[in-house]
Design goal:
mainly alpha; Helix Hairpins; 4 helices; structural constituent of ribosome; Ribosomal_uS15
Length: 89
Amino acid sequence: MQITVEKRAETIAKFRTHESDTGSPQVQVALLTERINQLTDHFRVHAKDYAGRRGLLALVSQRRGLLDYLKSKNEGAYQKLIAELGIRR
């Protein structure tokens, strides 16, 4: 259940901060969000996949750390990112 190459490239292109950017916090959070959304859909069908759920919690924790870092370094970019991704309600 990996993110397809096309979807990954599209996400990177949408959230990058400059032309050769592939590792900024914005891009990393966007890619993690895509993976988290895929896993969430997976758990709707496979409710007893507890090992996968553990991986999901690790991804959520990693995303939380990146969001905390981005918020401390650039509040405006943080607000823009969470609005685009729709991860805070």
